[in-house]
Design a protein that fits this description.
There is one protein chain. This protein has 218 residues and is α+β, with helices and mostly antiparallel strands. Helix content is 53%, strand content 10%. The chain has helices at 20-33, 61-77, 93-104, 108-120, 129-138, 143-152, 156-168, 191-216, and strands at 9-15, 38-44, 176-179, 183-186. 34% of the residues are buried.
Length: 218
Amino acid sequence: MTESATGKVSVKVWSDYVCPFCMLAEGPLHEATHDLDVEIEWMPFELRPHPTPTLRPEDEYLPAIWASSVYPMARRMGVDITLPTVSPQPYTRLAFEGYQYAAEHGKGAEYTPRMLRAFFQENQDIGRLDVLTDIAAELGLDKAGFAEALTAGTYTETHRAALRNAEAYRVSVVPTIIIEERHRIEGVPTASRIRKAVLDAQAEQAVARGAACGIDGC
């Protein structure tokens, strides 16, 4: 395992835009790292890829899990989040292809949190091209270029490669956070847990640099 090529601590966060726990994890992540030298990279994971049926809010499962887990956690954390009424819930492949466009154009860090807010705070159907295009334009991306790329499938293979990357890391739940390849956190963590993992990774980097200096000189 090697440290991040940039010298920053690498923080990879696998998420799906229809997972409320991914939105709940965003706050602790930024609270833990806002003053640390980290590089946060949002990574795609589809909980229910096509043709697996997606969930419907009018069925029993979603209201039950929100009542027992999502809403109590959100209240404790002070997060405004609501079970969307979009039915059935959207597939997220197209939105993730949009993420690849956004990342290539320097807006990857803003895209994922905005998509989560669009679904869980604004009840927007993020499976629709027109909704995604409006959000992209709001972020300062070229509206026509974004829509054309998604319509043409320009980033389809890039997204598939990202999903293969998730398989390589054995990601099966979201959120999954991996820090410098060594520290793995699944589910919604506390800020203190994330911060400890980042600080531990920084200490490990310092030891590795010291060892390299001892062998090769600095």
